Amino acid sequence: PPGEFRPGLSVEPLGGIRIGTLKQELDLKLTPSQLVSVGEPSGTIEGSDWWLELFVGGRLEYGFNKRWDLHFRGDIGGIKAGDETVFSWTLSAGLEYRPWELASIQLGYRIYDFNYENEKDDDTFELDAMLHGPVFGVSFFF
User: Does position 130 have pLDDT exceeding 70, yes or no?
Assistant: First the structure.
């Protein structure tokens, strides 16, 4: 039940499907001096894609007392489908505070690493990115 103290360590396996989207857009703007030597720019270059990615992972939770929990979460995922390859992983850690019986507040840090490659025709598009930063959340229990 909500607000019930869960002492000690708990382990929770994770698995699922992550939906990803990617949009790229290039809008060319040249100064008047560049227009003389380069010529007038023409239009915008755009592209987008989406995919489904399978992932597995786990979550560890340590309950200090009725109000405070420490959380660790990690997963790894990816898919190879046709011309596309996706690989990603996430790690996060944080604290959860339960000032009320039906709600809690979370504060933590998350790292999301993402590699995407698309080899359509003669062109190859690759994106290797790492996003990280603080996370803040509120949960409500029913």
Answer: yes
